[in-house]
Amino acid sequence: MADLSIGVIGAGGMGSRHVLNVQRYVKGANVVAVYDLDQARAKQVAEACGGVQAFSDPVQLIRDADVAAVVIASPDPSHAEFVQECSRAHKPVLCEKPLATTAEAALSIVEEEQALGRRLVSVGFMRRFDPQHVAVHQMVMAGKIGRPILFKGVHRNPMILPYLLRDGVVTNSAIHDIDSARWLLGEEVTEVYVRGVGTAMGHGG
């Protein structure tokens, strides 16, 4: 069976790590194409993979016949567009969180996938695959701690990135805890309330 050929969109911090992890540790997969807005960086990462193709257009990468699956690690606002392009090409995609920067765009992606009748989209919520998180989930699902009624997540970044302001704190960082709460408690979120220093925002849904 031939190796799965993967194209990576975004060759920054996360994208370059995905590339190296696939090349070094994922048996049965190879990176065959890389795109980044910074073409010099894309070419550098492509060279590290043995001189694979560095694309200048992300849509062309997605549509390329030699690319069987796609990893999206580009800036957050571009995720929805690229995921939808992968869906239209019927190609599996691993998208770094968030899937989209608005609820409306995320719902549109889910509806498009349902219309296809195939699960093609996966979001990079890595806690669901972390052995320690999986062990906690298994204990909860087995009823070994009784019925859980409260989840408290503590998330720390070593530095505040410039794009993690206001909405970005939720969509790019706290989204891990929101997903963990859904996964560990086995229930959907019905309301979100966010309070920051000197400001407050509330969203019901």
Could you explain how this protein is built, in words?
With 205 residues, the protein is an alpha/beta fold. The chain folds into 2 domains: 4-123, Rossmann fold (3-Layer(aba) Sandwich); 126-204, no CATH class. The protein has helices at 13-25, 39-48, 58-63, 79-88, 103-116, 131-141, 167-185; strands spanning 4-9, 29-35, 53-55, 69-72, 93-95, 121-123, 191-196, 199-204. It has a 6-stranded parallel beta sheet with strand order 3-2-1-4-5-6, sandwiched between helices. β4, α4 (79-88) and β5 (93-95) form a beta-alpha-beta unit. α4 (79-88) packs parallel to α5. The longest helix has 19 residues, at 167-185. It is globular.
CATH architecture of the largest domain: 3-Layer(aba) Sandwich
Strand content: 15-25%
CATH C-level class of the largest domain: Alpha Beta
Output the structural class.
alpha/beta
> What gap, in angstroms, lies between the N and C termini?
46 Å
Q: What overall geometry do the principal axes of the alpha carbons give? A: globular
Unreliable stretches covering 5 or more consecutive residues: none
**Domain tally:** 2
Task: Summarize this structure briefly.
With 205 residues, this protein is of the alpha/beta class. Helices cover 40% and strands 19% of the residues.
